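Bumping with the actual sequence this time:
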Amino acid sequence: MAKQRVSLVLDGAGYAVDGRWIVLPTKLALPMNRATVILGPNGAGKSTFLQLLHGMLSPSQGAIVCVDNSSGAPHPSEANFGFVLQRPVMLARSVADNVLHALAIRRVPVGKRHSRVHMVLQQVGLSTLADRPARSLSGGEQQRLAIARALAAAPDCLLLDEPTANLDPGATAAIERLLRRCFEQGLGFVMATHDLGQARRLAEHVVFMHRGAVHESTPARQFFEGPATTLAQKFLAGDLLDQFEQE
């Protein structure tokens, strides 16, 4: 897939459980080569939004499709996403074998797996720890390994759900440097966070959510310098958004 030409389009897509909307029906286009941050308070629906993009959840209403930016027509191939959770699950095996397992699941040809493992472990700075048990790594190292597993399958775009929420500042900085390098090399990402500082450092585009609704989708500079909605203004000011507050 030519990532620079493709957007992921939500065509009225939303997700409900027992009649209650977790993500309200939304019309939105997300270019897959962009550094997009989904910003909002806890409970805004950010994680569910990412799961819809990935395909882990099917929309209760509407659809999510890949669209060619130049023509507006549906793209013939489906998106290949790498998904990174807030708390990665490490298999009870070595660092290298964790990546090998991810490649086996994706049915990458056997002859290509070991070179791919070496490449991505070097990319995330874990080459020297390849033979160490994955569960013995620090929290930051485990998160970098989770990103390596996602990168190993050569995704079109990374989806990350609060990947540094449980990390110390040093480990957070290492993850942010890694994401910036990936982006500079042409790999876009969509990352959920409630950390304003992180969003300012990484975002090229911001999607602001509250109570399951997308209230703003705008270039990052425009969002931080002059948000269009009262809710976003309050959020940036550090105010607590009431769970029943809506625009």
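The tokens above came from a reply further down the thread. The longest strand covers residues 6-17.
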